[in-house]
Specification:
Layout lengths: L1 H26 L2 H19 L1 H11 L3 H8 L3 E4 L2 E4 L3 H6 L2 H14 L2 H8 L1 H22 L5 H12 L4 H8 L3 H30 L6 H5 L33 E3 L4 E3 L7 H21 L3 H21 L2 H18 L3 H21 L1 H16 L2 H12 L31 H33 L4 H18 L12 H24 L7 H8 L1
Helix pairs in contact: 1-2, 2-3, 2-6, 3-6, 6-10, 8-9, 8-19, 10-21, 11-13, 11-14, 13-14, 13-15, 13-20, 14-15, 16-17, 19-20, 19-21, 20-21
Amino acid sequence: MNLEKNLLPIAVTTVATLFLCVVLALLFDVKAALLGLFLVPGGVVAFLNPRLGLLALLIYLPFSSTIAFSTFKVFTVVGNLIKYSKSYPLFKVAKDAFYFPALLKIILSGDAWPKLRAKTKPLVIAIIVLVAVCLLTFFFVNLPNNILSKGLIGIKILLGYIPLILCGYYLIQQTKDVAIITRLLVVLIIICCSLCLIQYFLLTQGICPDNIVLNKLPSVVDLSQTKFYPDITDKATLKANCLVGGSNLYNPKLNLIRLSGTFSDPWQWGWFLISSAFISYAASFSDPSHRWKIISWISMAMVLSATLVSGQRIALILVPLIYIILLLVTEKRKQSLIIKLAIIAIFVFILVTQVGIVEQRVDNLVDRWMYSPPQEFIARQFSWLSSRLSLFGEGLGSATSGARRLTEEGTLLIETYYVKLLYEIGVLGFIAFMTVVSMITWLTFKAYRSLKTPALRHWAICLWLFILFISFNPYYYPLSVEPVSIYYWLFAGMLLKLPELEQNINSELQQPVSESDQHFLNT
């Protein structure tokens, strides 16, 4: 009888998968059909076991671009230009096959939502207001101007992952779940940074051609057709795809390097390194296992190494600074703090003065800073926006990078987040969005401050500082791109759950507790 019960859903899933693959092959291409082989099974598993689906989302997230660009090659090089395959949009949203079924099951189960809503009523109201304002922009700006597809993508990117707060709240049921998720992220960090270092080796050793060679290398069309040959000697391009990830730039003559790691673009990889700094430091002192603490320290070293070779200036500034700030915030013993800071200062001095690659990266950073100081760049963008301000903005998705490749409608490149929000959803939308992130920052801070267990407090303060930094970051737009667009909302939900976990442990002190919970109590 049980066998028959199991065979029926398996048969239905198999038929649905095959049907979807045929439809995708007809509508798109064979690559889309191959992607469909795991979309339906992945969605079914995520619905049946939401926690497993969310873990699958975290695993798939840092490799999604590698799967799209390096494995399936969903692009064609035409001279120096890139033409994307018909199946490219499907690969961009494939991660949602894990996310939305898991979210649906969590909502239908009805366990997590009432508890979370009771704790976060002001936040729920703020989110409702934000959704209402965005819908007003969509109906009164996007629709009249016939920018429907771009508006839908803008809504999805701006609002689509906010429900991950509920998913994060649901994801952790015991303190050991915090350790499991953190360990998973640490392993992913080590794997991704290792692949980035291999990518760096392949480029510097000439195994993967540099941009100088690629700029003159014919592909699909003759070199004589100059319209297909814009200069790529100083630009990251998918033509320089190497082993993993997407677009790269390597020009040894100009001392230029911008690696994408396992992500689609160098700037996206840079934000992965920045978020990984918070995660790896959080794990390095809060994990109940001494072995996993050592692995977490290794992940910190890997993040620093990948930051050094990747050529991402914002990561080169922020990653070391994040580690120092986290050390200052979490180290309680003044004597130990002074010793550690002295060791760091000596180490940094040796690196900058004695190691050539570090000196090159620092010189490049200083030159770029002097050429275009960030504060002046932000001021210029606000000055440009001043004559374009309106209540409801110019339309959702009109300055969203994710809409640039997924629609034929033009999008504006705006590189500062506040200006982007004001341009897209106007003054009302900007106020509503900033209210939401301010509420999240305040509620997660209250959750952190209520914790008494040292290990949980350490983990919470690291991730709360990540939320604080992303919430009020005026430069670029990490909340619109992976992986920050996933981590931010998910971590917020997990932080909101921690006081409840600690309360459950304290209420069960008279009963035997697991080894991991006991460690959190004693650490």
